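I'm stuck. Protein, please.
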Amino acid sequence: MADLRFTLRKALHKAGVLHSLRGLRGHRTKRPLFSPADARTPIATLACVDWLHQQGVLEGTDIMEFGIFRGFNMWFTQAYCRAKGISDLRWLGFDSFFGLPKIDGSDASGGFVEGEFSAYREDVEYYFNRFGIDWSRTFLIDGFFSDTLNEKTRARCQIRNCALAIVDCDLYSSTVEVLTFLEGLLAPLAVVYFDDWGDFKSADQGEPRAFREFEDRTRSQFNVVELQLPAGITKGKAFTLRRT
């Protein structure tokens, strides 16, 4: 029965009507809690924000999050930046709103399944509106990365330099797509935070493998240094990338 439900949901998503059909339920929709997938993610994200703010490089840039789940981290980061008086900053959230894509290749050994970590865009928008979001500075890009990380999206959203990229997409294949997209968009001094750095047992898989390949390919473009995050209360790894 679960497989049948997923197959139906996948067909509705492919037809582009899944979220609109759910939205017709209105107030009767039982919504999940507005919370991060992992409570340590916002702590790591704010540590990256603080470091960039101390360097004086946040104003006039964009923060991009790849894999926003229910949007809590995106909302929380924006609220935090407003409280700190950082005004000229925009947020772009990329998500399929259907969970992980089809799992294959080296990602198949990670225990992930297609559709895992799925969240509805309609829920994200509901909570953003309820708790307050600046929609003039917030963009949700709906679709799998293979369909959205391209020049068309860059032009449509008028993407500026990216000072902070939050990569929360688990898979090697997805991370490769993200880093390829970011290569020409990263600010002269930027931070890339990988939330799922340790999801695979081997450094030859997942986000570590994708970033190592990115480093090898772009060695002449960036000076890469690991950014130390608060010990014991964060996950993942962060790196500063300074254009040479």
In short: The chain has two domains: 1-30, 32-243. The chain has nine helices and seven strands. Residues 45 and 222 are 21 Å apart (CA to CA).
